[in-house]
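Milestone M4 deliverable, item 7.
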Amino acid sequence: MMALTGRTASGLARAAGLTPSTVNRFMHKPVRHTLSQRTMLALMTETFLTLKRQPQVHFDRAALADLGPAISVYENGILEQAPDVQSTIVQAKTALASEVMTDAPARGAPSDLPVLLASTRDINVQSGDFARAPLRTSRPSFLGADARAFALLMPDESMMPRFDAGDMLYASPARALDGEKIDVVAERLEGGFVVGTLVSTNNDTVRLATLSPRTRETLARAKLRGVYRVVGVQRLGS
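Output delivered:
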Protein backbone atom coordinates (compact mmCIF):
# COMPACT_ATOMS: atom_id res chain seq x y z
CA MET A 1 0.00 0.00 0.00
CA MET A 2 2.92 2.33 0.67
CA ALA A 3 4.34 1.56 -2.77
CA LEU A 4 1.00 2.22 -4.46
CA THR A 5 0.30 5.49 -2.66
CA GLY A 6 3.88 6.79 -2.51
CA ARG A 7 3.46 7.47 1.22
CA THR A 8 5.55 6.57 4.22
CA ALA A 9 4.08 4.30 6.89
CA SER A 10 3.26 7.32 9.05
CA GLY A 11 1.82 9.24 6.11
CA LEU A 12 -0.42 6.38 5.05
CA ALA A 13 -1.65 5.88 8.60
CA ARG A 14 -2.45 9.59 9.04
CA ALA A 15 -4.26 9.76 5.70
CA ALA A 16 -6.38 6.79 6.77
CA GLY A 17 -7.28 8.48 10.06
CA LEU A 18 -5.00 6.29 12.18
CA THR A 19 -2.17 7.12 14.52
CA PRO A 20 1.30 6.71 12.94
CA SER A 21 2.29 4.07 15.50
CA THR A 22 -0.50 1.80 14.25
CA VAL A 23 1.54 0.92 11.17
CA ASN A 24 5.05 1.81 12.36
CA ARG A 25 5.10 -0.61 15.27
CA PHE A 26 3.82 -3.40 13.04
CA MET A 27 6.56 -2.83 10.48
CA HIS A 28 9.55 -2.17 12.72
CA LYS A 29 8.99 -4.22 15.87
CA PRO A 30 8.70 -8.00 16.35
CA VAL A 31 5.01 -7.88 17.30
CA ARG A 32 3.11 -11.16 17.43
CA HIS A 33 -0.15 -10.06 15.87
CA THR A 34 -1.60 -8.96 12.56
CA LEU A 35 -3.30 -5.68 11.77
CA SER A 36 -6.98 -5.77 12.70
CA GLN A 37 -9.58 -5.96 9.96
CA ARG A 38 -10.78 -2.46 10.88
CA THR A 39 -7.26 -1.08 10.46
CA MET A 40 -6.73 -2.96 7.21
CA LEU A 41 -10.03 -1.65 5.85
CA ALA A 42 -9.05 1.95 6.67
CA LEU A 43 -5.66 1.51 4.97
CA MET A 44 -7.15 -0.26 1.93
CA THR A 45 -9.82 2.41 1.50
CA GLU A 46 -7.26 5.21 1.64
CA THR A 47 -5.07 3.34 -0.84
CA PHE A 48 -7.86 3.18 -3.41
CA LEU A 49 -8.89 6.78 -2.81
CA THR A 50 -5.30 7.69 -3.68
CA LEU A 51 -5.23 5.38 -6.72
CA LYS A 52 -8.45 7.00 -7.93
CA ARG A 53 -6.41 10.15 -8.60
CA GLN A 54 -3.81 8.27 -10.66
CA PRO A 55 -3.98 7.00 -14.26
CA GLN A 56 -4.04 3.22 -14.48
CA VAL A 57 -0.76 3.22 -16.42
CA HIS A 58 0.97 4.57 -13.31
CA PHE A 59 -0.17 1.72 -11.05
CA ASP A 60 2.73 -0.21 -9.54
CA ARG A 61 2.01 -3.69 -10.96
CA ALA A 62 4.29 -5.51 -8.52
CA ALA A 63 2.66 -3.80 -5.55
CA LEU A 64 -0.79 -4.56 -6.95
CA ALA A 65 0.14 -8.24 -7.24
CA ASP A 66 1.17 -8.25 -3.57
CA LEU A 67 -2.08 -6.54 -2.59
CA GLY A 68 -4.24 -8.77 -4.81
CA PRO A 69 -5.49 -11.22 -2.16
CA ALA A 70 -6.45 -8.38 0.19
CA ILE A 71 -8.44 -6.64 -2.57
CA SER A 72 -10.69 -9.68 -2.79
CA VAL A 73 -11.24 -9.79 0.97
CA TYR A 74 -11.86 -6.07 1.55
CA GLU A 75 -13.57 -5.02 -1.69
CA ASN A 76 -17.11 -4.90 -0.26
CA GLY A 77 -15.97 -2.99 2.81
CA ILE A 78 -14.02 -0.50 0.71
CA LEU A 79 -17.06 0.17 -1.46
CA GLU A 80 -19.24 0.73 1.61
CA GLN A 81 -16.75 3.35 2.82
CA ALA A 82 -16.00 4.90 -0.59
CA PRO A 83 -18.47 3.88 -3.35
CA ASP A 84 -16.78 6.20 -5.86
CA VAL A 85 -13.67 4.01 -6.04
CA GLN A 86 -15.51 1.11 -7.69
CA SER A 87 -14.08 1.92 -11.11
CA THR A 88 -10.59 2.11 -9.59
CA ILE A 89 -10.96 -1.37 -8.09
CA VAL A 90 -12.08 -2.64 -11.49
CA GLN A 91 -9.02 -1.02 -13.07
CA ALA A 92 -6.76 -2.63 -10.47
CA LYS A 93 -8.26 -6.06 -11.12
CA THR A 94 -7.91 -5.51 -14.85
CA ALA A 95 -4.25 -4.58 -14.40
CA LEU A 96 -3.71 -7.75 -12.36
CA ALA A 97 -5.47 -9.93 -14.91
CA SER A 98 -3.46 -8.49 -17.79
CA GLU A 99 -0.10 -9.31 -16.25
CA VAL A 100 1.88 -11.60 -18.53
CA MET A 101 3.52 -14.51 -16.78
CA THR A 102 7.19 -14.89 -17.67
CA ASP A 103 7.26 -18.62 -16.99
CA ALA A 104 5.57 -20.86 -19.54
CA PRO A 105 2.93 -23.21 -18.09
CA ALA A 106 4.15 -26.73 -17.54
CA ARG A 107 2.50 -29.57 -19.48
CA GLY A 108 -0.64 -27.67 -20.29
CA ALA A 109 -1.37 -26.33 -16.81
CA PRO A 110 -2.61 -22.69 -16.73
CA SER A 111 0.02 -20.08 -15.93
CA ASP A 112 -1.87 -18.59 -12.99
CA LEU A 113 -3.50 -20.09 -9.93
CA PRO A 114 -7.09 -19.50 -8.75
CA VAL A 115 -7.43 -18.04 -5.27
CA LEU A 116 -10.54 -19.02 -3.31
CA LEU A 117 -12.09 -18.11 0.03
CA ALA A 118 -13.70 -20.55 2.46
CA SER A 119 -17.08 -19.10 1.44
CA THR A 120 -16.50 -19.23 -2.35
CA ARG A 121 -19.28 -21.01 -4.24
CA ASP A 122 -19.93 -21.97 -7.89
CA ILE A 123 -16.51 -23.65 -8.03
CA ASN A 124 -15.84 -27.27 -8.94
CA VAL A 125 -12.31 -28.33 -8.12
CA GLN A 126 -12.88 -31.88 -9.35
CA SER A 127 -13.69 -30.70 -12.87
CA GLY A 128 -11.17 -27.86 -12.76
CA ASP A 129 -13.91 -25.21 -13.07
CA PHE A 130 -12.44 -22.06 -11.50
CA ALA A 131 -14.18 -19.52 -13.74
CA ARG A 132 -15.77 -17.80 -10.72
CA ALA A 133 -12.63 -17.70 -8.59
CA PRO A 134 -12.51 -14.24 -6.96
CA LEU A 135 -8.80 -13.77 -7.66
CA ARG A 136 -5.74 -15.20 -9.40
CA THR A 137 -2.14 -15.31 -8.32
CA SER A 138 1.18 -16.50 -9.70
CA ARG A 139 1.47 -20.27 -9.94
CA PRO A 140 4.35 -21.66 -7.86
CA SER A 141 6.71 -23.93 -9.72
CA PHE A 142 5.87 -26.98 -7.60
CA LEU A 143 2.26 -26.82 -8.89
CA GLY A 144 3.24 -26.23 -12.51
CA ALA A 145 1.83 -29.53 -13.76
CA ASP A 146 -1.34 -29.56 -11.63
CA ALA A 147 -4.18 -27.91 -13.54
CA ARG A 148 -6.65 -28.40 -10.65
CA ALA A 149 -4.46 -26.93 -7.93
CA PHE A 150 -5.69 -23.79 -6.16
CA ALA A 151 -4.92 -21.42 -3.30
CA LEU A 152 -7.19 -20.73 -0.35
CA LEU A 153 -6.87 -17.32 1.30
CA MET A 154 -7.15 -17.03 5.06
CA PRO A 155 -9.26 -13.86 5.47
CA ASP A 156 -9.03 -13.43 9.25
CA GLU A 157 -7.38 -14.67 12.43
CA SER A 158 -9.76 -17.59 13.06
CA MET A 159 -7.09 -20.18 12.15
CA MET A 160 -4.28 -18.71 14.28
CA PRO A 161 -1.75 -19.77 15.42
CA ARG A 162 -1.50 -22.34 12.62
CA PHE A 163 -2.39 -19.90 9.85
CA ASP A 164 -2.46 -16.11 9.94
CA ALA A 165 -4.81 -13.68 8.24
CA GLY A 166 -3.49 -13.11 4.72
CA ASP A 167 -1.78 -16.49 4.41
CA MET A 168 -2.50 -18.45 1.24
CA LEU A 169 -2.72 -22.22 1.45
CA TYR A 170 -1.75 -24.13 -1.70
CA ALA A 171 -3.90 -27.24 -2.20
CA SER A 172 -3.44 -30.02 -4.73
CA PRO A 173 -6.04 -32.65 -5.69
CA ALA A 174 -3.22 -34.63 -7.30
CA ARG A 175 -1.37 -35.32 -4.04
CA ALA A 176 -2.13 -38.41 -1.95
CA LEU A 177 -3.67 -38.06 1.52
CA ASP A 178 -1.03 -40.13 3.25
CA GLY A 179 1.16 -39.34 6.22
CA GLU A 180 0.37 -38.11 9.73
CA LYS A 181 -1.23 -34.80 10.72
CA ILE A 182 -1.54 -33.45 7.20
CA ASP A 183 -3.59 -30.31 6.57
CA VAL A 184 -6.39 -30.57 4.04
CA VAL A 185 -9.11 -28.51 2.38
CA ALA A 186 -12.52 -30.21 2.10
CA GLU A 187 -14.85 -29.00 -0.66
CA ARG A 188 -18.55 -29.12 0.18
CA LEU A 189 -21.04 -30.13 -2.52
CA GLU A 190 -23.20 -27.06 -1.85
CA GLY A 191 -20.14 -24.81 -2.07
CA GLY A 192 -17.60 -23.55 0.40
CA PHE A 193 -14.50 -25.10 1.94
CA VAL A 194 -13.38 -26.40 5.34
CA VAL A 195 -9.73 -26.30 6.46
CA GLY A 196 -8.45 -28.74 9.03
CA THR A 197 -5.96 -31.44 9.95
CA LEU A 198 -6.94 -34.88 8.69
CA VAL A 199 -7.70 -37.24 11.57
CA SER A 200 -9.15 -40.21 9.69
CA THR A 201 -10.95 -41.06 6.49
CA ASN A 202 -12.94 -43.96 5.07
CA ASN A 203 -15.49 -44.59 2.34
CA ASP A 204 -18.27 -42.89 4.33
CA THR A 205 -16.73 -40.09 6.39
CA VAL A 206 -13.86 -37.66 6.70
CA ARG A 207 -12.86 -36.57 10.21
CA LEU A 208 -11.01 -33.29 10.63
CA ALA A 209 -9.50 -31.41 13.55
CA THR A 210 -10.46 -27.76 13.01
CA LEU A 211 -9.29 -24.60 14.75
CA SER A 212 -12.39 -22.47 14.21
CA PRO A 213 -14.14 -23.77 16.19
CA ARG A 214 -11.48 -25.88 17.92
CA THR A 215 -13.12 -29.27 17.59
CA ARG A 216 -13.18 -32.50 15.63
CA GLU A 217 -15.71 -32.48 12.83
CA THR A 218 -17.02 -35.51 10.98
CA LEU A 219 -18.05 -34.80 7.39
CA ALA A 220 -20.12 -37.21 5.34
CA ARG A 221 -18.41 -38.23 2.10
CA ALA A 222 -21.77 -37.95 0.33
CA LYS A 223 -21.80 -34.22 1.09
CA LEU A 224 -18.25 -33.58 -0.09
CA ARG A 225 -16.95 -33.10 -3.61
CA GLY A 226 -13.40 -33.82 -2.57
CA VAL A 227 -10.64 -33.53 0.03
CA TYR A 228 -7.36 -31.95 -1.09
CA ARG A 229 -3.97 -31.92 0.53
CA VAL A 230 -2.37 -28.62 1.57
CA VAL A 231 1.09 -28.74 0.01
CA GLY A 232 2.42 -25.29 0.84
CA VAL A 233 1.70 -21.97 2.53
CA GLN A 234 2.50 -18.47 1.30
CA ARG A 235 2.92 -16.48 4.47
CA LEU A 236 1.69 -12.91 4.62
CA GLY A 237 4.58 -10.59 3.83
CA SER A 238 6.98 -13.34 2.81
